[in-house]
Amino acid sequence: MSDFPGVLRVGDLEVAVSVSERRKSVRLTVERDASITAVVPSQVSRTELTKVVEAKRSWLYGKVAEKRDLGEAPPDKEFVSGEGFLYLGRSYRLRVVDSGDVRLIRGRLELARGGGAKELVDWYRRVGAPWLTRRVQPWVTRIGVEPSGLRVRPLGYRWGSCSRDGQVNIHWATMQLPPTLIDYVLVHELAHLHRADHGAEFWRIVERALPGHEDYRERLRRTGHDLWLPEEGR
Ligand SMILES: [Zn+2]
């Protein structure tokens, strides 16, 4: 006997379950609104379904993040004093001042009146370039690659990319993440300089450089859609 339909919770995932007499196996779907549904054969138990969901956990997180990215974005910024902006995983309040370039000073992010997304995106890129260039060094040694350069730029919904000639690109929006998650993005891109695909060998390189990388990956997926990603910076 099935104990469904109903809602099944697995960790922080919530799955709406319905039963179909005709199904022979479980079908998991992430809907457009990022909700998860399962259609299950009538004899499937709660324990069995939990196992199936657990086995597909990273896939589900990925899909949920994807749908959220495409769906509702975090609220738009208004660029008024007191508004919070993330930098290296910490929130800094904005202070609108009369003039000057964007700068982080005494725990406040200063923005000249009339400025907005463009000025702030430029700031993330400006501070991101030297910060990432320093941060990447130990990983370069550890992974044994020689990137030809590192650029901070908009990359759509990707965290990073790299080109055949060894150029590594990092999305400016990663500067909002905590440093340990930025490390994961860097390691991921550097590992691609060895292997272009996401095959087993690629993940071995990542794991060797950053043990427990799956945990970072999952955290990145969950944090990702909370970041500020204005149209001007995509
Ligand atoms: Zn990749």
UniProtKB/TrEMBL annotation:
Pfam families: YgjP-like (PF01863). The keyword Hydrolase applies. Residues 24-222 form the YgjP-like metallopeptidase domain. The keyword ATP-binding does not apply. Coiled coil: none annotated. Keywords: Hydrolase, Metalloprotease, Protease. This is SprT family zinc-dependent metalloprotease.
